[in-house]
Specification:
Helix content: 10-25%
Distance between the termini: 46 Å
CATH architecture: Alpha-Beta Barrel
Radius of gyration: 16 Å
Number of strands: 9
Strand content: 25-35%
Number of helices: 3
CATH class: Alpha Beta
Number of domains: 1
Mean pLDDT: 84
Largest sheet: 9 strands, antiparallel
């Protein structure tokens, strides 16, 4: 239960900061790279709601996985289809879930979808989750300079388990932005 609450709080902080303007973390532009990734299925709870509802969704995701006997095959993910700069808070569209094997057939409240984007700009932010939003301006500037355009939703992959690593300066968040050449 402590783990769910801690993850809930960390994801909420990350999402609140996701689209805010904050000072850049000590990162380097060359940390952004374009890479090929495989499509993968994932189960999630999909919402169109303010980001303030994320903690409640996180508290439902893991128990739903457990009750349905679904085993994640990767770290928790958040997929963000729009931003507070584009729509009203109640129109924000997002998903919280985990990658799963292709055989999984979820029941409500979970839905199954597939990450279909195979070319992504990737950046691994190292530091406290609440500072990971500082990577977005760096990534967007890199995309512009290198003549790439965003072609899909942003995904964050939360790679560090806060219960296993107490030092927040070592947390890793991998950010994927689907891209194509302009």
């Amino acid at each position: 239960m402590k783990k769910i609450i801690l993850i809930t709080l960390l994801v909420l902080v990350v999402l609140i900061l996701l689209f805010s303007t904050i000072a850049a973390h000590t990162t380097h532009e060359n940390g952004v790279k374009v890479k090929e990734v495989k499509m993968f299925p994932y189960c999630c709870i999909h919402k169109t709601a303010p980001f303030t509802e994320i903690p409640a969704v996180i508290e439902k995701v893991w128990p739903a996985f457990q009750q349905q006997g679904i085993m994640p095959v990767g770290p928790m993910i958040g997929i963000y289809f729009n931003s507070p700069f584009e729509v009203k808070p109640e129109e924000l569209e997002w998903e919280i879930g985990f990658p799963v094997s292709s055989e999984v057939i979820p029941q409500e409240p979970l839905t199954k979808d597939t990450w279909i984007y195979t070319k992504v700009a990737s950046y691994t932010f190292v530091g406290p989750y609440e500072e990971s939003a500082s990577a977005y301006p760096i990534m967007m500037e890199w995309l512009e300079k290198n003549e790439y355009m965003q072609v899909g939703p942003v995904m964050e992959r939360y790679l560090t388990d806060p219960m296993s690593e107490p030092d927040t300066s070592k947390y890793e968040t991998e950010i994927w932005i689907p891209v194509d050449k302009k």
